[in-house]
Amino acid sequence: MPEVRTVVIPLASGAVVPALAAKLLGAARARNGVSIRETLNDFRALFTAADQALDVDALLSIAEGWAEVAETAPTISCTDVYTGLATQAHFQRRVHDVSAFGAEGPGSHALAIIALPRPRDSRTHGWTLLARLGDAVKAALQGTGATAMYQNSAIHVLFSVSESNLSRLMACKAVLEALDDGSLYPARMKFYPLSRAEATAATTSTAARDSS
Predict the structure, then answer these.
(1) DSSP character for 155?
(2) 30 CB burial (10 A radius; 0-12, 13-18, 19+)
(3) In a 10 Å sphere around its CB, with 0-12 CB exposed, 13-18 middle and 19+ buried, how is residue 72 labelled?
(4) Is the pLDDT assigned to residue 75 strictly greater than 80?
(5) What are phi and psi of 12, to 5 degrees?
(6) Alpha carbon distance 166, 160 (integer Å)
(7) Could you report the per-residue pLDDT of 126-151, keeping only the tens digit for each?
(8) How much is the pTM?
């Protein structure tokens, strides 16, 4: 988040962390569902990593920013209430985390997008179908470690590349096409390697195409 940069830059240069920058970082952490304990521990760890004494005034400012926002911030959930799959925010965070920190090597993870036919009489599928769709995806991908979300008439899946997982994705596509007496047939599936830029571009282009 951009608020981190405004704290890290002065700290890295040996300057005092501005009170406003620390307060804004605390507010941003609260909006993203991070607890006050984790927020303060992370802030303390930042000073330890920089080999500097903890700035108590900055610590108080980050706590103040967190407290002001935490009282009114909506509850953060990782699960979409309609499908039971990942929310867009959680899915994007998983893509970022895996591409930045969690991949075992180049090409070890990929993004699959299963584009579904749009409903004829509305902009989105009915909630009963969405619930069945979510159950079907979770059952088909159980045990693969994949993260899936539904967005704009498409299932987005972050997965570890293996022959077994590719087979499970093909089976998932077939199960989706059979739902609701075949109303989701034909589905189209594309794969994208997980570099941060390419995965983001793939998700963005699909969302833009499906919303047009």
Answers:
(1) E
(2) buried
(3) exposed
(4) no
(5) -65, -30
(6) 9
(7) 888 999 999 999 999 999 999 999 99
(8) 0.60
